[in-house]
Design a protein that fits this description.
Chain lengths: 458, 429
């Protein structure tokens, strides 16, 4: 049976479990002339939970884990047939066998054909075992659930307990996702650091991830010094903040303190459209409109502006971040207690003096928080830089030259046709974990700083 | 004071300066806002100016006489096999060259043939299979021109440069002029763009494949993210006991909302593709990755919506004997659902525009087929924009602009829907 068919069977049995559950409690209640512990429908629901949940979780677990299990066992088997092969070669053979088995690949190698036949028979066996195991579980737990129905059985409490646990599970997924990110990135990154020195990665000043395909090839040993990539990221983020910070903060001041209410209601959503535009659109704009524009301006001034200049990518990223800064700052400025403003105005300060000397200093922690969040956004931004920034790692502070960023390198390293186990692809995960840690620290710093603001005035 | 001015006079004098400073600050703010809005207008305006021309495609009329033995089998039935063996490309080119009988040089003939789309033959084949009655007689058909001719007639090809730097030669320009004079070349609505998937030839490429890929991914995202988000929100609002554990969950959610999207792509690549060996480029995996990304957004929105329902509703339910679960699910949740829906739509709009994580799981592929299932290889609308903007042909530039317009239109519609929903169901308690 296919997954779809099994799901249908599970659903049908679960639906009938409701019906049978309610019927049983109705007849029990009639027989003993007593009201049951909970409402009738809860006995039905309880039966459904018993029927559906174990079988369905089994199905999900089986479909995820069976291929992984088969692969492990099969590769183990392969390693006995080809004792001279390394792990990566075994993986390759397995992929080949898999492709032959599913008909994507044709082969005349007798050994491979035999192996692929074996794999097919294993897969079929796994599938038929799956049907039997799940049907057995389905019938067994349904019967168990049905059996539990008694007049004194607290069905509502049980059902609600189940749902509360389910809800808790949903809330915990947030933690699970974080753990999954850290573990999966770490796992691949550690494999990278097995072949490449950690400190060379962190402090090396030369980044050229090309690996020699032949041993005698010149100059392609692969060098993974992160500094130039990091410098490029910082340069572009710096340019972006140079654009976004003044425009964002001044807009926020105007909106919070000067704009008439009607105008504010128009300006705020309009600026927020900028935040809703997908980053790929900004990337398109930067690469195909802004960069050529800057280049032609540069040419007319006698400057050599790269067509992938950091300036174009940074400026467009700045435009993207404006609404982020302006709405965060707007909130922060509004969070400054009215009493402070009133006090300042009452002492005869003008509105401008109140803003600069009272509101902004009071709101400073929040503004710093907004700034840090915006920086975290800028260094994690991908599409703009992938489309508009360079691919070669230059260690330069000149905004007119092309630089590369962490995110550009991740995309470049993982979209080529490379073997997954090469240091080249693994280095992308090392960059990924660096990016994750950097943004995590910025976010936590932002949170801590802006919490100071609310603590101060609450 | 010593210099003969009173305090009042001094203050009055400085006041002017202070007010000037205030006006200056105000105008800085106004200027910043105008700058932001100008950027928005330039961004959307330039893309619209670039993209709207892709709504039309240039076609040229050719006159063909398809002999029946190229379409029908011996029994006179239309036959796929016979049609498969017919050289439609040659047929289209030959028919087109009949317009210029005086071109005899082989090289010139090839240049002439280059004026029509290299897919013109396929188009004729398709027209024949739709309407076999055109076979066997002289018929006039409109076929697509090459993208260079298309761009030329849309005024996007620079012609006042030396011949070697141009995509069209002098004689080609002359022929196009001749066609224009004869009135057998025209622009018509670009239906192909909305009914097909990607192609190597700009004139045959469309976004339907990408839209369907996006739609499938969105269905998966919604099916996974919404239930989890609502359950998590109810738990955090009504069941979680305040303490370190709950704080930790909250910090995690807030932090996940700020994790760069590419990191979710890496997660998807490492876990879904490499560990669980799910198919590459599949919209199913794309949707799963996007659901991880949108989950925190929807949780935060759902919690806000639940908190906006006054506690008196819940208290009333509890005091009438409802259990905690009944009060939350039967009484608060229905009242909070418009808010949850609004938050979901905004989260989905975010997911729809997301590109980077989809690139990581291999949804950046060249596909001429429209995906039909969850595990078919597919692209998504933003990924298609990325693919096209990388292409050298000018005509793809125009097409990716139009694709952007369509994507932005989708997003604006979704956001408007969210605003309208909020307006319609917003309750002042």
């Amino acid at each position: 049976m296919s997954i779809f068919e099994i799901t249908i069977v599970i659903l049908i049995i679960s639906a009938s479990a409701y019906f049978f559950g309610v019927r049983k409690i109705v007849s029990l209640s009639a027989k003993y002339k007593k009201k049951p512990d909970s409402l009738m429908k809860y006995y039905g629901k309880n039966a459904v939970i018993w029927a559906f949940v174990p079988a369905f979780s089994m199905l999900v677990a089986y479909s995820f884990l069976a291929p992984v299990y088969i692969e492990t066992v099969f590769i183990d088997k392969l390693s006995k047939i080809f004792p001279e092969y390394q792990q990566s070669q075994l993986n390759l053979v397995y992929a080949q066998v898999q492709n032959i088995a599913s008909g994507f690949l044709e082969s005349s190698d007798v050994q491979l054909l035999a192996l692929s036949e074996q794999l097919t028979s294993w897969n079929e066996k796994a599938q038929s075992t799956r049907s039997w195991v799940i049907l057995l579980v389905l019938i067994g737990t349904s019967a168990l659930g049905y059996n539990k129905i008694k007049l004194r059985f607290p069905a509502r409490v049980k059902v609600e307990q189940f749902f509360e646990r389910l809800f808790l599970g949903a809330a915990v997924t947030a933690i699970l996702i974080t753990i999954a990110i850290v573990v999966s990135l770490m796992f691949e990154a550690l494999r990278f650091f097995e072949v490449y020195n950690f400190f060379d990665f962190l402090f090396g000043t030369h980044w050229s991830p090309n690996i020699a395909i032949r041993d005698d090839q010149v100059g392609s040993s692969g060098s993974f010094g992160m500094i130039p990539v990091l410098a490029g990221t910082v340069l572009i983020a710096f340019i972006a903040m140079l654009v976004a910070l003044p425009i964002g903060v001044f807009s926020a001041i105007y909106m919070a303190e000067f704009a008439p209410r009607g105008l504010r209601d128009i300006i705020k959503p309009t600026l927020e459209i900028l935040a809703g535009i997908p980053t790929v659109v900004y990337g398109f704009f930067a690469a195909l409109m802004v960069a050529p524009f800057f280049r032609s301006i540069g040419l007319s001034l006698g400057l050599d502006v790269s067509s992938e200049s950091a300036l174009a990518a940074g400026a467009v990223m700045g435009i993207m971040i404006i609404p982020f800064i302006s709405s965060l700052s707007d909130d922060v400025i509004n969070a400054v207690p009215q009493s402070l403003k009133d006090g300042s105005i009452g002492l005869g300060a003008t509105k401008a003096e109140t803003i600069i000397k009272v509101i902004l200093p009071a709101a400073l922690p929040g503004l710093v928080g907004a700034f840090l969040l915006a920086v975290s956004r800028a260094i994690g931004e991908t599409m703009i830089v992938v489309m508009a920034a360079g691919h070669a790692a230059n260690l330069t502070a000149n905004p007119l030259e092309a630089v590369t960023t962490v995110t550009v390198q991740i995309v470049a390293l993982l979209t080529g046709d490379t073997v997954f186990d090469s240091p080249k692809t693994l280095s992308a995960f090392a960059l990924g974990i660096t990016l994750f840690v950097a943004t995590l620290m910025l976010n936590i710093a932002a949170l801590t700083v802006s919490r100071k603001l609310s603590e101060k005035y609450d | 004071m010593g210099n003969g001015k009173t305090n009042t006079e001094l203050i009055a004098k400085s006041l002017e300066k202070r007010h000037r400073r205030q006006t200056r600050l105000k105008y800085y703010g106004l200027f910043s806002i105008l700058l932001g809005i100008t950027f928005l207008i330039i961004l959307l305006g330039s893309i619209t100016l670039n993209g709207y021309t892709a709504l039309q495609q240039t076609v040229v009329q050719i006159s063909v006489n398809i002999s029946p033995d190229k379409v029908f089998d011996d029994n006179g039935n239309i036959s796929e096999e016979v049609m498969y063996n017919t050289n439609w490309d040659g047929l289209a080119k030959k028919a087109f060259r009949q317009e210029f009988p005086d071109v005899v040089d082989r090289k010139e003939k090839r240049k002439l043939s280059d004026l029509i789309s290299s897919n013109a033959g396929y188009d004729i084949k398709w027209m024949v299979s739709q309407n076999p009655s055109i076979v066997g007689k002289e018929t006039k058909l409109w076929v697509k021109t090459s993208d260079d001719v298309d761009q030329l007639l849309k005024g996007r090809l620079t012609v006042n440069v030396p011949e070697e730097q141009r995509r069209l030669s002098n004689s080609q320009l002359k022929w196009v002029k001749n066609l224009t004079d004869k009135g057998i070349i025209k622009k018509q609505f670009n239906t192909v763009f909305f009914t097909s998937a990607d192609s190597r030839e700009p004139e045959s490429s469309g976004i339907l494949g990408a839209i369907i890929g996006s739609a499938i991914a969105m269905v998966v995202t919604m099916a996974l993210a919404l239930p989890f988000a609502v359950m998590a929100a109810i738990y955090l609002e009504y069941f979680a006991k305040p303490g370190k554990w709950t704080d930790f969950i909250e910090v995690n959610i807030n932090n996940l909302a700020a994790v760069p999207s590419i990191v979710f792509g890496l997660l998807g690549l490492a876990v879904f593709l490499n560990f669980f060996e799910l198919p590459r480029s599949a919209p199913l995996v794309g949707g799963m990755v996007l659901s991880l990304m949108t989950l925190p957004t929807i949780i935060i929105a759902s919690r806000a919506a639940i908190r906006a329902v006054p506690s008196s509703i819940r208290d009333a339910a509890l005091s009438l004997g409802a259990s905690k679960m009944q009060a939350a699910v039967d009484h608060v949740l229905p009242l909070a659902s418009p808010g949850i829906l609004t938050g979901t739509i905004i989260g989905m709009a975010q997911a729809l525009g997301e590109t980077a994580p989809l690139i990581m799981i291999g949804m950046v592929v060249f596909l001429v087929d429209i995906p039909t299932g969850f595990t078919d290889a597919a692209t998504a609308l933003p990924v298609q924009i990325y693919i096209w903007s990388d292409s050298a042909e000018r005509a793809f530039y125009e097409r990716s602009s139009l694709a952007i317009m369509i994507l932005v239109l989708f997003l604006i519609t979704m956001n408007l829907l969210a605003v309208l929903l909020r307006k319609k169901f917003e309750k002042k308690w």
